[in-house]
Design brief:
Blueprint: H1 11-16, H2 18-33, E1 43-46, H3 52-60, E2 68-71, E3 79-80, E4 87-89, E5 97-103, H4 112-121, E6 123-134, H5 142-146, H6 155-163, E7 169-176, H7 181-190, H8 206-222, E8 232-238
Parallel strand pairs: 1-2, 1-5, 2-4, 5-6
Antiparallel strand pairs: 3-4, 6-8, 7-8
Helix pairs in contact: 2-3, 2-8
Length: 241
């Protein structure tokens, strides 16, 4: 969760929000299918903001708080993840990781290749990167400006970025949130003249939150085959062993 959104929803609502729940399910499936959820796994979440995904990993029991750390240079001080006990630091610790998450991070950084290279260097040999970025420049809106985005991506654009880091291998590259893409396109078109300092993250009604969460949980099962369209581009990459 971005720091710019922290005043829009309460901690309890954000941890149950359809957006984070569905993206967490995609992350969980990816880590499980790749055999990355071991007792020895060391995981870092770069640019984690308030650490929502770290807390969801902790609460699920998939990884312990001692095996995870958040890193966010935008944080003013070290703190714990939202509703959890995972430490969030302002700089990299002096050890490397089996898994590094860059979830909605690279679009915030002007030199995204340098940030990706830095994450690559903090991976252990054979380690994995899990990357998500917003998709399609035609979806650019006030939401992107509020959150300080530099760009949006396509599969080909993210592939070009990843392959610019020598040795980094792409294991999978796909879109996510295809089910809600038409709705998002309509909403952003209608709000294109909207002003203010809020992003598109808003609390949904309990019923709508339930429907979106369940629908997107189903989509997450098949998401790794979607090479066509969605709100998010996802890449799973590996450092050579």
């Amino acid at each position: 969760m971005d720091f710019a959104e922290q005043n829009q929803v309460t901690p309890s609502l954000v941890l149950e929000h359809w957006y984070y729940q569905s993206k967490f399910e995609l992350l969980r499936r990816t880590l499980t299918d790749s055999g990355l959820l071991k007792s020895s796994t060391q995981l870092a979440d770069l640019g984690c903001g308030l650490g929502v995904f770290l807390t969801l990993l902790e609460r699920s029991g998939l990884l312990s708080s001692q095996s995870m750390v958040g890193i966010d240079p935008a944080a003013t001080h070290c703190h714990l993840s939202l509703g959890g006990t995972v430490p969030i630091m302002t700089a990299w610790p002096d050890y490397s990781f089996d898994v590094i998450l860059l979830m909605d991070v690279l679009e915030h950084i002007e030199d995204d290749r340098a940030a990706l290279r830095q994450a690559y260097e903090k991976l252990k040999p054979g380690g994995h990167l899990f990357i998500t970025v917003p998709a399609f420049s035609f979806l650019w809106s006030h939401h992107d400006e509020v959150l300080g985005h530099y760009r949006r991506y396509t599969i080909s654009g993210l592939r070009k970025l990843v392959t610019s880091v020598p040795g980094l291998k792409i294991l999978n590259l796909h879109y996510f949130y295809a089910l809600i893409l038409p709705i998002a396109m309509l909403v952003r078109f209608l709000r294109q003249k909207a002003q203010g300092n809020s992003s598109d993250l808003k609390p949904a009604s309990a019923f709508l939150n339930f429907v979106l969460k369940k629908s997107l949980l189903v989509e997450s099962i098949f998401a790794n085959r979607n090479k066509i369209a969605g709100l998010t581009v996802v890449a799973v990459c590996q450092k050579p062993k």
